[in-house]
Amino acid sequence: MRMRSVTPVFVEFIPDHIEEGLLYISEPYQTAIHKCCCGCGEEVVTPFSPADWRLTNGDKGVSITPSIGNWNYKCKSHYFIRNNQILWAGRMSSQQIEQVRKRDISDKQSYIAQLNTAKKETKSRNWFTSMIKSILSLFESIFRK
Ligand SMILES: [Zn+2]
């Protein structure tokens, strides 16, 4: 049975038992989980990050972008969640799926690369700050004498 809507439930921790028709959203953990809307019973996890999905919580309900494509499951269902409504998208051909996968992988890689650069920058900044501090304390100790 294809579902037509989901009910968002805001939780801190994702519960062990996932009920059909509910979209569990954990803001602290930036992720959501729901049972595949085709009714196959598979659990679909949608982490929120620039390389994964984005959640918008509006007056009319929640939306998740981009679409949810369960290529890895038997059903291969593909749908959008817009204002709590399920908009069913056509099945993608295996060629289209391959394209989306490739795009996802490169999105993820560039996101990880960005994170790593940010980390490196922080590290070198920290190194610079601690160097300056040690030079200053060296001067201080010289002048005190
Ligand atoms: Zn399914």
Task: Explain briefly what this protein structure is.
Helices cover 35% and strands 30% of the residues.
Jot down its keywords.
145 residues; 4-stranded mixed β-sheet; 4-stranded antiparallel β-sheet; 35% helix; binds zinc ion
Give me the secondary-structure topology.
Blueprint: E1 7-11, E2 22-26, E3 31-35, E4 43-47, E5 54-58, E6 61-69, E7 78-82, E8 85-88, H1 94-144
Parallel strand pairs: 1-2
Antiparallel strand pairs: 2-3, 3-4, 5-6, 6-7, 7-8
The structure holds zinc ion.
What does this structure look like?
This protein is an alpha+beta fold. It has two domains: 7-91, no CATH class; 93-145. Helix content is 35%, strand content 30%. The protein has one helix spanning 94-144; strands spanning 7-11, 22-26, 31-35, 43-47, 54-58, 61-69, 78-82, 85-88. A hairpin with a 2-residue loop joins strand 5 (54-58) and strand 6. The longest helix is centred in the C-terminal third of the chain and has 51 residues, at 94-144. The protein is elongated and about 85 Å long. The termini are far apart. The relative contact order is 0.11. The mean pLDDT is 89. The structure holds zinc ion. Zinc ion is lined by residues 36, 38, 40, 42, 70, 73, 75, 77. Zinc ion (ZN) binds next to loops.
